[in-house]
Specification:
By secondary structure, the protein is mostly helical. The protein has two domains: 7-176, no CATH class; 183-276, no CATH class. The chain contains 14 helices and no strands. It has helices at residues 11-27, 31-45, 50-62, 69-84, 88-105, 118-128, 134-149, 152-157, 163-176, 183-198, 201-221, 225-228, 231-246, 254-276.
Length: 277
């Protein structure tokens, strides 16, 4: 079933590519590139824009995991309806404006950005289209529903084991990122970048929970013999705890972001050392 798909008109693909570009820029301390991405996100994906509403239709599908079949099917139906109720001509104009800005700020290689869930995003774009035959529509919807109902165990089974495929994936990943990130660090960066388009609502919610988790981990760590018997380590842990407490009333900026990222790494290292002792 070969169906032509224009990735430049795939709202979610461009959004995810921008997120990856900004994440790489933050890690590399490339403020110029980060500023470019943030400007585009603010312009095209702010609340109330057509592209933001279109993106939410995509996200309701590709961010949904481990759902029961009935719920997944209901979400798919609602997402299709919401997408098709958008102003088609207005959406086309908005996408054209976004493509123009991306072309002006980045090279043509931007549209070759490696997005792991690209196949799913392409399937969703085609399901939202009204140009599919009934047969192709049903087949693509089945693929999307499978994605939405997969459990973590079945997702792990789908990871490619071919060494060449894995090698190609790692190479493409390393072209964007200088260092390996923890899963919680990736989440934080993703929420931080997305915050420029949703007034930080999602980021604040995540940070509230994450800072609470980190504080609990550090408090438990101060009870470990290795840290209790090391005045310097105990002092540093106490300072970090006070710093985390201050973030509840502090404006979110890159200082907060970097501190939390470093604390996430510290907590992981403490947990790893404790498990090996």
């Amino acid at each position: 079933m070969k169906i032509r798909h224009n990735k430049k008109r795939n709202t979610a693909f461009i959004y995810e590519s921008l997120i990856k570009e900004a994440t790489a820029a933050i890690i590399k301390n490339d403020h110029k590139t980060k500023h470019k991405v943030v400007s585009i996100l603010k312009k095209h994906f702010s609340e109330g824009t057509l592209l933001k509403r279109h993106l939410e239709c995509y996200r309701s599908l590709y961010e949904s995991k481990s759902l029961d079949p009935k719920t997944a099917e209901k979400i798919l139906i609602e997402a299709k309806i919401a997408s098709r109720l958008l102003d088609t001509q207005g959406l086309f104009v908005s996408q054209s404006d976004l493509i123009k800005d991306v072309n002006e700020e980045f090279s043509t290689q931007f549209f070759n950005t490696f997005v792991p869930n690209y196949k799913t995003l392409a399937s969703i774009a085609q399901v939202f289209s009204t140009k599919l035959s009934p047969k192709n529509s049903v087949m693509l919807e089945a693929q999307i529903l499978t994605h939405m109902t997969e459990t973590p165990a079945s997702l792990l089974q789908n990871i490619p084991t071919n060494p060449l495929i894995v090698s190609a994936f790692v190479e493409k990943f390393n072209q964007k990122y200088d260092e390996e990130l923890l899963e919680e660090q990736k989440k934080l960066l993703n929420y931080y970048i997305s915050s420029f388009a949703d007034n930080s609502l999602t980021l604040k919610t995540f940070l509230n929970d994450e800072i609470g988790r980190l504080k609990n981990c550090l408090k438990e760590a101060t009870g470990l013999e290795e840290i209790k018997n090391d005045p310097e380590m105990l002092k540093k842990a106490t300072i970090v705890l006070k710093k985390l407490d201050s973030f509840y009333s502090q404006q979110l900026d890159e200082t907060v972001l970097l501190t939390v990222l470093k604390t996430q790494k510290l907590v992981k290292e403490i947990a790893t050392d404790a498990s090996h002792s």
